[in-house]
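In this section we walk through a basic example: taking a raw amino acid sequence and producing a predicted 3D structure, encoded as discrete structure tokens. The instruction is simple. Fold the sequence below.
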Amino acid sequence: MVRLFVIFIGVVLSIQVSAQKSSSYREDFQIYKKALLETHPSLYRFTPQKQFDAVLDSVESTIDSETTEWEFFRALHLVHAMIRESHSFLGVPNQLMSKATSAKLFPLQVWITESKMLVTGSREESYAHLVGQEIVSINGQSVKSLVQTLETFSLLNTGYNNSAIYKELSGYNNFAFAYYFFISKAESFQLVYGSDEKLQSETLAGSKKSLKGEYPQFPDEPKPPFSLKIDESKSIAELTISTFAYWVVGKKQEDYQEFFENCFTALEEKNIEHLIIDVSNNRGGEEMIGAELLTYFIDQPFRLYKQVSAKTLDYSCINRLPNSSRPKFSNNDFIDYDSIYVLKKGDVLKTFEPKQEHRYTGNVYFISSGRSRSATNILLSLVKSHDLGIIVGQESGGASQDLDGRWRVKFNLPYSNVFVSYPVWRLEIDSENQNPKLGVIPDFVVDRSNEDVLSEREPELDFVYQLIQNEQ
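The resulting token sequence is shown next.
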């Protein structure tokens, strides 16, 4: 009798724990949903409201007493990815990141495109022979199918442009973590690789080696973040800007301004005819710095944005959430117009004047890639719209016409501890004649071959030099 009573109590407690767990995840999701619907400035820009709301409701209905932290994290990503704007972010909670770093993850580094996966490195010496091989499938799932699944969960896409996803999944161990979070927690991996003429199969054990507890992981920014090389014999200069995020590299905006002035003074003094500006690894930052750069090329006043707007000025729905922060706007700065709040004054709306001294009138070439996001994407969009130079490389990593940015809301969901962050301003870029659902399309698309990737060669720069040679 006592034993039956103990078993009964155990079952009751188990039910109570499951119910509490379900309620907690549900409550987290409801908090997340309420904040998103009330304060995000452009939920339906790339996903129609009917489709967005249907997925939101469907995902919410799947959260029950059996939901795990891994499944809840995936569920949030399914919704967040529909925003299709890479400034909206979900952080991996510490407990889930700890489990990922102690798990046996996919042991190879890879280079990814829409339908290709090239092995570029291995965390285990025993798999070094796979470097240079093209993977056809992993655990029976084709590369194309894998990439499509990761696109569904990724927060790096903007519009219908996946160039940023491919670029960042190809870095460090980002693919290994993405596979764990969004595909499977498998600890062994049956690989099919090679060419159609000679396919091979091998089963790899997962690896814990050389894993940094961060996802996604980005490269460290070079210090200083800018450099200029001049070849007077060829009358060519190469200007590299690795970031506009001055705070990350211990700089000020004034440091960029001084550098630009010195650069264009030198170009003028040396009468340099061709200028190559490499922003292919520039993930953005302060767009005012990009605008300052453009004043050396453009011959007319210009703006960065046509309009800046917010959905609401009330962010009280995130009050008292853990680690929350929110913007504080004044009604005097906005016009309540057609159910949105349009900013009527502020630095982001200023008009920039072209430089009167040291303005560059030679040939300009910009190198871009999927990593050219945020402020860099704005720069490239204006270059394209104003016909300020030739763009070479790959599609930029943002949408060509608008983005969400600057002021943000931030908070942790109380139970799951997932960190949520997204901007509250929609910024409509003052550019024309581009597809708003895509990034900035280069004038010359230059893709990288397997040999380029493995040797870390930059064919984009070679292509520009060839263009210059053809013009001479």
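Looking at the output, two observations stand out. The radius of gyration is 25 Å. The chain is about 35% helix and 20% strand. In the next section we compare this with other chains.
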